[in-house]
Amino acid sequence: MSYVIGPGCIDELDRSCIEVCPVDCIYIGDRKSYINGTECIDCGACEVECPVSAIVVDRVAKKDDTLSAFMQDSVDFFEKPLPGRDAPLGDPGGATAIGEVGVDTPMVADHPAT
Amino acid sequence: MTTNPSIIETDVLVVGAGPTGLYGAYYAGFRGLRTVLVDVLPQVGGQVMALYPEKQIRDVAALPSIRGRDFVTALEEQAAAFAPQYLLGKQALRLDAGATGTTVRLDDGTEVRAGAVVLTAGIGTPNPRPLATGEEWLGTALSYFVVDPEAHRDQDVVIVGGGDSALDWADALAPIARSITLVHRRAHFRGHAATLARVQLNDTTTVVTDTEVTALDGDLAAGRLEKVTLRHSNGEEHVVATDHVIAALGFISDIGPLRDWGLDLRGRSIAVDRAMRTNLPRVYAAGDVADYDGKVKLMSVGFGEVALAMNHVAVELDPDLTLFPGHSTEES
After folding, report:
1. What is the spatial distance between Cα B113 and Cα B12, in angstroms, rounded to a whole number?
2. A41 lies within 8 A of chain B by CB
3. What is the Cα–Cα distance from B236 to B214, expressed in whole angstroms?
4. 3-state class of B26 per DSSP?
């Protein structure tokens, strides 16, 4: 179980969610942030904090075509090598320690400007 | 430097005073074991108190709906039947597990010698999220917790944060401090609305939103803070006379010192067998920190796991006992 950040975050990147995540599992790409589903403890602290309501729980996201695409995209962000990288990010165990990733998945990078 | 660490002897040491640890303290008492609970936070209740004290919990047996805070109070009351000893605000740093007993050293030098240790550490050690500025004042005029409200009597206090802790402390310190300035970076508070309403009514409290703390100034060597600079999101700055800053910006948790205890870890969890034993002798784990195939991290599951662990601890410490405890109704 986990939460997922949907398209509302693209080019918004408010970061309020990051301030409240108790396990530091929200990673900053370039245009959007991504929740690591393996590290997420499903507490829901981020959901209420997002000023654009971009964060939804996976149980809800999977019933929506757009959001379920972002669920898969969030998995890809960690499990597939990002553009320009040789190895996947994996589960780093904390976003602060690795800093901003600075790269998005192809799906988010190619997303029309919001 | 000579230290004379205090030594505490007990049957079982529970590391982590969240719901699973509190129920474990009750259960250990029920099995006739003396219990010590240690927690790095200054309060019991773990994640429930740290993350959602005001939310309703609806997935624990026999409790259709209960506020987090009340749930923790009830767990504490249940455990109190066996008078466990609480060591709060202290961190378990080192563990030596042997065939005849365990020794855990705490960050204040205390040594706890226990027949067995049950790790109910949840998501691990919560590290306060630091304030972006003024870290050099930590320990003098900057703190992450209110341990003793009286320490702030007649002070001008700045509280930073938008969650329940910030609001609770603003509320609790209002009759004690000379003034309180509650500073939140956003327009809306995520803490309980009723607490915010109460805080806003206090004559000595000023609530400042869309604002961040950008500087702490004073006599650092003497630990005497004088003023804090606040910057509104529109760029305007103003200075507030301040004796003490309390930053309640939430926590980032990690498994902490447990990582180095030689436990068989699965990510940030500890692998256990079906009796909740870890790979170390006389060391058990239960609740969110314990992991096995098919695990589901719920309080309901943690309660079952810690009961299981304590029954096995009871037999390990006294092989004449039976694993099955009998029924709690028999004592009424």
Report:
1. 9
2. yes
3. 12
4. helix
Position A50, amino acid = C
A38 vs B52: CB contact, 8 Å cut-off?
no
Same fold, B7-126+252-331 and B130-249: yes
Q: What is the pTM of this model?
A: 0.78
Cα separation of B37 and B33, whole Å? 12
pLDDT level of residue B42 (50, 70, 90 thresholds): confident
Inspect the interface and report whether the beta carbons of A20 and B253 lie closer than 8 Å. no
Query: What is the sign of the dihedral through the CA atoms of B103, B107, B110 and B112?
Result: negative
Write the pLDDT tens digit of every residue in B55-111. Answer: 899 999 999 999 999 999 999 999 999 999 999 999 999 999 988 999 999 999 999
Given an 8 Å threshold on Cβ–Cβ distance, is A22 in contact with B190? Answer: no
Q: Which of A22, A38, A51 lies closest to B51 in CB terms?
A: A22
Contact B201, B188 (CB under 8 A): no
Give the SS3 label for residue A79.
Answer: helix
Fold of B7-126+252-331: FAD/NAD(P)-binding domain (3.50.50)
Contact A23 B163 (CB under 8 A): no
d(CA B114, CA A102): 49
For A111, residues 6+ apart whose C-beta sits below 8 A from its C-beta are: A7, A10, A31
Residue B253 sits at the chain A interface (C-beta within 8 Å): yes
Q: Rg (Cα) of chain A, in Å, rounded?
A: 13
Residue B47 corresponds to which tokens in the numbers above? 């994640």
What the block records as the tokens of A21 is 């995540």
Per domain, the residue ranges of chain B are 7-126+252-331, 130-249
Mutate to test the interface with B, among A1, A21, A41, A91 (most CBs of B within 10 A): A41
Grouping H, G, I as helix, E, B as strand and the rest as coil, residue A81 is coil
Tell me if residue A89 falls in helix, strand or coil: coil
Domain B130-249 has CATH 3.50.50.60: yes
ipTM of the prediction:
0.72
Q: What is d(CA B104, CA B95) in angstroms, rounded to the nearest whole number? A: 5
* Closest chain A residue to B126, measured at CA: A22
Looking at residue B13, its amino acid is L
Residue B279 touches partner A, C-beta closer than 8 Å: no
Question: What are the structural domains of chain A?
Answer: 3-103 (3.30.70.20)
* Interchain contact, B252 vs A51, CB within 8 Å: no
Q: Which amino acid is residue A74, in one-letter code?
A: S
